[in-house]
Amino acid sequence: MLEAKTFESIRQLDGISERTMTEHYKLYEGYVKKFNEISEKLLTADLDAANPSYSEVRSLKTEYSFALNGVKNHEIYFGHLGGDGAVPSGRLSEQLTKDFGSFEKWQLEMKATAMAARGWAWLVWDKDLQKLVNVAGDTQSTYLVWNCLPLVALDVYEHAYFIDHGIMRRDYIDAFFKNLNWSIIEKAFNTAIK
Ligand SMILES: [Fe+2]
User: Fold this and answer.
1) Rounded to whole angstroms, how far apart are CA atoms 77 and 43?
2) Gap from CA of 71 to ligand 1 centroid (Å)
């Protein structure tokens, strides 16, 4: 059984309201609840009836990925918000420069990825390519690439910004960057490259 974590970032942020953060956290709790429900139902599902058109096993298996990634995505999201947006230094900064040309160029590509996505934009460390890459997602569980560790998770579902910014997703994305805690992201990167 998973339990919802608590996050210091569920409060008024710079450009993201307490109402948005509080409502958004409730959605995260919903993913935790649904993941537990799916895990429980898998224990008693009719395995003989499994079928790719429709079956209980199919529903549970597809939504397992959706719900669990919903949990993981939001834990990264809430976990690295609440900072002052100060630009990273050290090993991560060097790798961003190596793979994108500069921090600013990475940020421009990440913003474009977030504008092009229907759900998420992630900065990931690809362990096979040994490279930082921005990846777009249309749901909680697409389009992930194997052996990649997400370091930055930018939620661009409308629930993340509509209360504060209406359809102005770009303004929300700017606010997201202002509130990032890069020390947490650097720590995740240093663990990822070990
Ligand atoms: Fe979300």
Assistant:
1) 30
2) 9
- Threshold 0.85, pTM exceeds: yes
User: How many angstroms is it from 51 CA to the middle of ligand 1?
Assistant: 31
pLDDT of residue 88: 80
Q: Which of 179, 189, 137 has its CA nearest to residue 18?
A: 179
Tell me, in angstroms, the distance from the centre of ligand 1 to residue 25's CA.
Answer: 8
CA–centroid distance, 8 to ligand 1, in Å, is: 16
Q: How is 80-114 classified by DSSP, letter by letter?
A: HBSS--PPP-HHHHHHHHHHHSSHHHHHHHHHHHH
129 is written with which tokens?
Answer: 């390519």
Do 58 and 103 sit in the same domain of this protein?
no
Distance 122 CA to ligand 1 centre (A): 13
- CA 54 – ligand 1 centroid, Å: 28
Residue pLDDT, tens place only, 164-183: 999 999 999 999 999 999 99
What domain range is 38 assigned to? 18-80
147 and 97 share a domain? yes
Instruction: Report the SS3 class of residue 17.
Output: coil
